[in-house]
Structure formats: C-alpha cells, structure tokens
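FORM 7B: Structural annotation worksheet

SECTION A. Query
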Amino acid sequence: MSNFRRAGILALSIIILGITPAHADKIKAIATISIIGDVVKNVAGDAVNLVVLVGPNGDAHEYEPIPADSVNIAQADIIFENGLHLEHWLDKLYLASGSKAKRIVVSQGVTPRIFEDNPQETDPHAWQDVTNVILYTQNVRDALIAIDPANKDKYTANASDYIQKLQSLDAWVKAQVALIPVDKRKLVTNHDALGYFARRYGFKIIGAVIPSATTEAADPSAKETADLLNIIKSNGVHAIFSENMANPKLAQTLSQEAGVQVGPELYTDALGPVGSEGETYLKMIKYNVGVFQKYLK
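SECTION B. Predicted structure
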C-alpha cells in the first residue's frame, strides 16, 4: 500500500472519530518547507499552531510524504507553499488527505527566474533574494488576516517588524558583497539553487554539479562533468560549494578533478537545525555571505 493511500486512510479515520488536536482554538497552519515556516513564525508568533512538513536540512525536491503529513493537512486551516513547481508532491497529498485548507502560494508576485537553456523550467528558489522574502512575508500576513481577522493587529505589527529586518539584511548583503572583487563573484554549487541570489547581488553562476534547479535530476553525464571542469578552470573559480540538504560527494569529486577547494556547506533549500548557524532565514543568509567572503576573495 502506498504512503499516499495509508495517509488518506489515516486522515479519514481521524475525521470520522472526531479527534481534534490540542489548542483547537488556534489556527492550524502548515508550511511546506522550513524557510517558509520561519516566515510564518515571524508573522504569526504564538497565534497559530504551525507544522512544517520538510524540516531542517530537508530536501523538498526529493521529499516523500509520510502518513502524518496527510493527517496534519487534513486538520489544517491554511497551507503555505512556495509554488514555482517546488512542491511537486503536494497536490496529490492534499487530495489524498481530503483537506479543505486554504492554500497560499507565498511566492505570488515574485518575478520568476527562467533558465535560458531550458525555458520550460522555472527556478523555485526565490527566497535566495531577500526582497522576495519581503513578498513572502506580505503574502503570509494578508492570508493570516483573512482567515483570522481577530489577530489582525498582531499579524500586521509582526510582519512590519520582520520586513524591517529583511530590508536591513538586504542592505547588509549588498554592502558585504561589495567587499568581494567583481571578478571573484563566481559560484558553483551542488545544484542550481542560487540564481535569484546571483541576480540580486551581482554574482555569476558558473555552473552546478547537478545541472538543474532540482536535486531530483540524474547525476551529470561524463560530458556535462567535463564541460563544467573546463568552465571552472577557464573562469578561475576558487571554490565549489556543497549544500546542507544535498550529498556532497559529487562536489568533492569535481573539486579534486578541478584542483579547487570545496567550501563549507551552504544553507540553500532548507534551514539548519536549532543551534546551527542556519537556524533562521536571517542567519542562513548572513552565514552564506560570510562563506563567500572567505572563500571567493
């Protein structure tokens, strides 16, 4: 029996039995990934019961839902999702759960990044541009106010405070990047996850070990690897960066062949666990920029 079928049966059983979770008076919210969950926490505070489906260090591209996800979605009032084809598994999970939750695409309003060599593929990693997370925050705020108007003042004030922090972060990133010579702002990562960051802050994406916006893509062919090696050498790339939610072996192998170092794991598609340098969105961006400053000069 598939996970989706088991999940649907379990969710239906809970609905039939009338089981309700604790704090039933609060809005029940779902965030698909940890980065969106952090935005929701900053806007909602303690006004909602929040469940994050793909947690710290989790890979949303390769995520396989479990029965508990269907239960949580069945009980939810609202679901915050990234959109831009990130959560390819969500439609099926939502249908199997029988959920009536309102679905909110937090990337609404973002100018999507389209790949020149593959116009059919949209880059989902919009959060790598801090100004896009301001849009995320506004969308979360408006959706929460619509479903829970009693807490409008709280959501409005919290969102305003968080937006100010994001605006400060955006300015800080620009100032720090200015300290990196323009000809050194060249990025090679495990998969193509930093396009929005590069577009906003003046970096050039040289290539990716997995030449795709998703880690689900097949391992690179011998020709793709050879081509990337040539690009790395001809562009004087200083480092290849692995990611906290991806297997670093391919990046390590490529770095050895190219004769360049592997930088520390970046926080790209997920936050880090509590206590890590990437435990919040604000921290993860600052950490990544600090890594670039150290390894690209």
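SECTION C. Observations
The first helix runs from residue 3 to 17. Confidence is low (pLDDT under 50) at residues 4-23.

SECTION D. Sign-off
Analyst initials: ____
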